[in-house]
Amino acid sequence: MQVGLRHFDSQTLDWLAGALRSGEHTRHALTRELCERTGWRNALGRLCLSAAAKALPALAERVGIELPPARAVPDPTVAPAVPAGDVPDTRVACALEEFGPVSLDPVGAAADRRLWEAMMEARHPLGWARPPGGQMRYWIRSERHGVLGGIGFGSATWQLRARDEWIGWSADARAANIGRVICNHRFLLLAGVRVHGLASQVLRMAARKVADDWESRYSVRPVAAYTHVGPEHSGYCYHRAGWIVAGRTGGRRARPARCGSWRWRTVGGRRSAMWNAARSGRWPAHMTARTRTGRRGSTDARATPTGGCATASSGWAGPG
């Protein structure tokens, strides 16, 4: 049986049926044993408990036995409560040449993550909801002015037409290489930061930095990144940073409003422009093995569609 990227054999299904009939296991215990039995671990060697918990209902439905009741626990995708006074609210206006050094500092321990998420919830127009999969988050900091905002990258969604046509990969190639594509799911410069050209500078810095940091954390080097720009924005800063427009996404009306980081893309089936980042040169052969015919980044980035999808061409690997 196939659930997402994971295949489960008949022995796993037989084990699950027996465990459910016994009534002796909690959902958490079933999830942990499912990971251990199938060797389901991430690049760091940790059990993929979150992904397994999402697959468990589909497996239980297949064997025709209900799961035990879920225990009430805090929703990990929702931003934590942080005192309003602790959320950064920097105000500065000047020319970029006068601004001084800017750095991207990885978000650290639990308290640091909570503050970053609270900032996104309070200051970003789309709020915050944690996406599934791997994460790299950064504080945008000025040596002179402190916190300016934040930027975050996460694992790619499984299927996205504009992105998949831009890469030109087959279903098999996508299944083998989806871990090499990441999503820029949040980018925020605080409303009080008025520095022309700063946004595109941060995006160029992020494109160079995240590939190395992602590989260091997950032992997989990403070769492309994408993001979404809503119809109320032009995406000009992405264009100035070297990203290119790849097409449009149509939205998914059926998904819940607070489902991962895609809340802003899916509510009401809203369309968004997709932008992509990729390094000059050709795609690695394994990325497009057995490809279907598709577009490969030929869209003119100067004409950003209202509501669509984009890719970046600076510091990545892909068609130039």
Fold and architecture overview:
The longest helix is centred in the middle third of the chain and has 21 residues. Helices cover 31% and strands 20% of the residues. Strands 4, 5, 6, 7, 9, 10, 11 and 12 form an eight-stranded mixed sheet that branches.
Helix content: 25-40%
Uncertain segments are 252-270, 291-309, 312-320
Report the total helices.
Answer: 9
Strand content: 15-25%
Order of helices and strands: EEHHHEEHEEHHEEHEHEHEE
Structural class by sheet pairing and helices: alpha+beta
From the spread of the alpha carbons, the general shape counts as globular
What's the mean pLDDT score?
78
Short description:
The protein has helices at 10-22, 27-38, 49-63, 110-123, 161-167, 171-177, 198-218, 236-240, 263-266, and strands at 2-3, 6-7, 92-93, 102-106, 135-142, 146-155, 181-189, 193-194, 224-229, 243-249, 272-278, 308-312. It has 320 residues and is of the alpha+beta class. The strands form three sheets. Strands 4, 5, 6, 7, 9, 10, 11 and 12 form an eight-stranded mixed sheet that branches. A two-stranded antiparallel sheet has the order 1-2.
Task: Offer a few descriptive terms.
9 helices, 20% strand, disordered C terminus, alpha+beta, globular
Task: Write the topology of this structure.
Layout: E1 2-3, E2 6-7, H1 10-22, H2 27-38, H3 49-63, E3 92-93, E4 102-106, H4 110-123, E5 135-142, E6 146-155, H5 161-167, H6 171-177, E7 181-189, E8 193-194, H7 198-218, E9 224-229, H8 236-240, E10 243-249, H9 263-266, E11 272-278, E12 308-312
Parallel strand pairs: 3-8, 7-9
Antiparallel strand pairs: 1-2, 4-5, 5-6, 6-7, 9-11, 9-12, 10-11, 10-12
Helix pairs in contact: 1-3, 2-3
